[in-house]
Structure formats: C-alpha cells, structure tokens
Amino acid sequence: MRRSTFLKSVAASLAMGSLPAAVRAQAKSSPALKMMIPANPGGGWDSTGRALGKALMDAGLVASVNYENKGGAAGALGLAQFVNAKGDPNALMVMGAVMLGGIITSKAPVNQLANCTPIARLTSEYNVFVLPANSPYKTMKDVVEQLKKDPGSIKWGGGSRGSTEHIAAAMLAREVGVDASKINYVPFRGGGEATAAILGGNVTVGGSGFSEFAQYIETGKMKPIGVTSPKRLTGELSKGIPTLKELGYNVEIGNWRGVYGAPGLSAAQRKALTDLILAVVKTKGWQESLGKNDWTASVLTGPDFDEFVDREFASLRAVMVKSGMI
Which of 50, 141, 179, 325 is deepest in the core (most CB within 10 A)? Predict the structure, then answer.
C-alpha cells in the first residue's frame, strides 16, 4: 500500500474509532519518525512534540518516535541541525511563533526555515505572566509602577529572545511610556530553565503559555498577574487571571505551535506527512493532550498554513518595530 493511500485508510479508520490489524501492522513496519524539538526539555515545544509523538504511537500510526532536543537561539540551533535531514520523509520539527520572532531578531542573512517544508499549525495559546510566591510585588500594577521608576530593576524571564513573552513585555513597556530597549529581559533555552529561575526568585516576572505554569499556579508556587488574551481564559484554573487589556494595558499577543518537514520533500511526501498529522489530531490521545494542557486546537495545513506563516512574519516584525525591540 502506498504511504498516502495507507494514511487515508488510517484517517478513515480513526473516524470509525478503530484501526484494522493490517493497518497497524504496516505502521509498525514503517521507519521510526524522527522528532526534532529545538528547545531544551520542559517547555512548550518539548511538551507539544512529545504529546504528538505519544498520540501517533498510541494510535498505531507510527511504530516509534525518536526525540531529539536541541535548544538555543529561539530554535535556531535545532533548525540548523534539522535542515541536514534534507529529503527525509520521516522527520518532523516542532516550531511556532517563537521561532519566527527569533529569526527576525537575529537578523540572520539566510532564513533556514524557508528551506524546510511547512506541514501544519497545531495549537494556539496565550502567554500568562507570573510572580514567584515570595515576590514583594502582588499585582501587574505593582510591577508596572516599578518598571516606570527603574526599567532595569524588573527582570522578565521567559523563552528565547524574540519569543512572544519577550514581545509582550516590550509592548507593555511601550504602553506605559518606558523605552522597550531598556527592559531587562532574561532569555532561557527551555521552559524547564525558565521555571527554575522563576521559582528560585532569579527573575522578577516570568512569562510563558499557561500550560507550562499550571501546576505551579495550582500549588501556589506562582501567582498569575495577567494574560495576553483578548478575553479571559475559560479553564477552571485560568479563568480568574485578568487580561492585560482588562488591567488597562493595550497588549494582546497569541502564541502558536506547529510542525515542519525536512527540506526537499516532494509534493507526495509533504501530503503524506500532512495526512499523518490530520489523522493524529482526531485521535483520543491528542484530544486528551489538548484538554490537559489547556491548548486550543487550531489546525491549519497546505497553502493556508504557508500564507499564515508569511503573515505572521510580517505581523511580528511590525509589532517588534513598533514596540522598539528592533
């Protein structure tokens, strides 16, 4: 059975809630899927990549998944390594808005992402800002007042330079009359490192997707003080967090995550990987991951995804220029 035909059969079987033995057998005999996660363990890309791989294996869509974490420079180090998988139809890389922001701020002469093969956008979420439990500050207003007095005294901790939480901090600074170039932003190579810095009080304010901080918010180790969404989140744990707009700051920015294939794939190979993703996002395992992590499904594939990425590059660049980041 050709891979594309095989995946169509898988998708149909998933819709009926089962996979025939023959289909499962072919999946088990297929090459292992290689998952590049261009960040250190513990962050949003890591959890997305591993949740995706687990759902693929649980559904019998692939025999196995080999994960590789390569953090640094907003995913640029992992991306540089991933382009060497040219022509490999069994390789995927997790990416998203953070990578686009990193490419813009790095001013790299070559956009290596443009050489890779767009497959799908998977999820979207908004950033939440948190304080460590023992912080002398209690609210976002407290933080802003100190920011206006001494911009460098507030350490913002989060993902790589150019991440959506970095952009949000710069937007907030501009909103309150502070030169965004003077904010003290501390980038980390992965969510695990950022979380440790926040819990240890090594940064004043932490920023990331709600899912990365949920367990610490629930146990009281972190205090959420604002979210970058247009309206409040709806989860049991997140619904009490005020939006920055609600607090009087016109700051709204979303984050999204997706996957790319290796450079040099044929149209048929791209379609096969796209069909694989469209099959797995319908599975029970993936749906459970969405609920567990408070991720919003926002699947987009094909030319629509290509155009979306182009628009995101332009939009993020405009926001960065306006906020004084570049």
Answer: 325
Average pLDDT, the chain: 90
Indicate if 125-253 has the same CATH topology as 3-124+256-321.
yes
pLDDT of residue 265: 97
Q: For residue 159, what pLDDT band results from cuts at 50, 70 and 90? A: confident
Cα–Cα distance, 70 to 81 (Å, whole number) = 8
CA distance 157 to 134: 16
**Partners of 92 in the beta sheet?**
35, 261
**Taking the CB of residue 323, how many other CB atoms lie within 10 A of it?**
22
Q: How far is CA 263 from the centre of its chain?
A: 21
Strands 65-69 and 222-227, bridge-based pairing: unpaired
Alpha helix positions (H), 107-255: 140-149, 164-175, 191-199, 210-218
Evaluate whether 253 touches 228 at the Cβ level (below 8 Å). Answer: yes
Amino acid identity, position 158: G
Domain boundaries along the sequence of the chain: 3-124+256-321, 125-253
Under a CB-based contact definition with an 8 Å cutoff, are residues 281 and 289 in contact? no
Using CB atoms within 10 Å of the CB of residue 17, give its burial: 0 to 12 exposed, 13 to 18 middle, 19+ buried. Answer: exposed
* CATH no., domain 125-253: 3.40.190.10
Nearest Cα residue to 10 out of 48, 49, 56, 54: 56
The structural architecture, per CATH, of the domain 3-124+256-321 is: 3-Layer(aba) Sandwich (3.40)
- Number of Cβ within 10 Å of residue 55's Cβ equals 23
In whole angstroms, give the CA distance from residue 207 to residue 220. Answer: 16
Percent of the chain whose predicted confidence (pLDDT) is above 90 = 72
> pLDDT tens-digit profile of 176-215?
999 998 999 999 877 788 899 999 999 999 999 888 899 9
When computed from its CA atoms, the radius of gyration of the chain, rounded to whole angstroms, is 20
Q: pLDDT digit string (tens) for 136-158?
A: 999 999 999 999 999 999 999 99
